[in-house]
Automatic annotation (TrEMBL):
It comes from the Bacteria. The keyword Nucleotide-binding applies. It catalyses: tRNA(Asn) + L-asparagine + ATP = L-asparaginyl-tRNA(Asn) + AMP + diphosphate + H(+). PROSITE patterns: AA_TRNA_LIGASE_II. Its main location: cytoplasm. This is Asparagine--tRNA ligase. Its EC number is 6.1.1.22. It comes from Facklamia lactis.
Amino acid sequence: MEIISMRQAEDFLDQEVIVKAWITNKRSSGKIAFLQLRDGQVYFQGIVLKNEVGEEVFELVKTLGQESSVELQGIVQADDRSNLGYELLIKSIKIIGESHEYPITPKEHGTDFLMDHRHLWLRSSKQHAIMQVRNEIIRATYQFFNDRSFIKIDPPILTGSAPEGTTELFHTKYFDEDAYLSQSGQLYMEAAAMAFGNVFSFGPTFRAEKSKTRRHLIEFWMMEPEMAYTDHEASLKVQEEYVAFLVRSVIDNCRLALETLERDINQLEKYCQLPYPRIEYTDAVKLLQDNGFDDIEWGEDFGSPHETFIANQNDQPVFIINWPKSIKPFYMKINPDNPETVLCADMIAPEGYGEIIGGSQRIDDYQTLAENIHKYGLDPEVYAWYLDLRQYGSVPHSGFGLGLERAVAWIAGIEHIREASPFPRLLNRLYP
């Protein structure tokens, strides 16, 4: 007899199978019991008929607590009332592990309680759906870049310098040297691009930023491609194609998860339409000032309200391009049309989710980069290897970074980024 996941149910219609699952809820009436079940991949219903299993087994089913694990033998049946489309008529049941007084019940719980029980909260239908969306975004990322002949390169997590030149770093000792947890793999990706042409990394990064907003995590995952012989315009095209590809993949492969999350799929369809609109930073400042945002001046960074207003002018993600060089990192190439700005862009997601991508064309000239390192007060010895890339066959190159959890939160339509990470690290949370 086949052991299956109920995700395979259509291939086993009217056949007897074995399914290993957990009980999420149950109810019984007279001679029939309804079990709400999950097998790790999908949620489904099992029906227990007293005259099919006998009185002893039927009474045993009534005693099973929430999250008890079971091995079920039964017949797959069509069920038009179920989102899955199938249910299991149970013939026999074997208890694998009992569960009593499960902490997370179907009632409402506070956020702190749920975060303290994150190891169990992941089992709930909504959290399960979010992780399915996350998994699909990761799978689709590999497909997108592998199909375009990018090579995956893994940058180090321990570094001796700050890629962004900031102080928001986790410091540690590396034997007798200072080291930091990486806040970006970009500089190493630039080295890899000079060796392989087109590369990408996908791994954890860290920001020691004392922020409690719904958009920030201390530890998060970044996807960072770097492309040799690629200017800013070509990079923007890759960025929008990549994001549209992610959204399309989730729509096509996570339909049940999106329905569980009550995500508006028609809205998501709009995000698959290219090209995405663009607005110059200078024009964005004027747009904000003309609409009552008196707190913003040219040369200042945008906050969440500013980003949300700009995004709300469109039905798609929007690029804010060519930012002031004074508020951007040292490695960005000057915009030849306006030397006070650099060739960069932030992609702002609709619906108030803020920046999901930051990217730029990099400085490819040795002298200019050396001057910037000095101007930004950075140690030339620490960045000597990075300068080497401009001495030995330098080429125009560009890259960007996408924050995985922000992309998950946006596509899944969840309010807080903490739910987009299986075990989020927040300002005052290191447990579980």
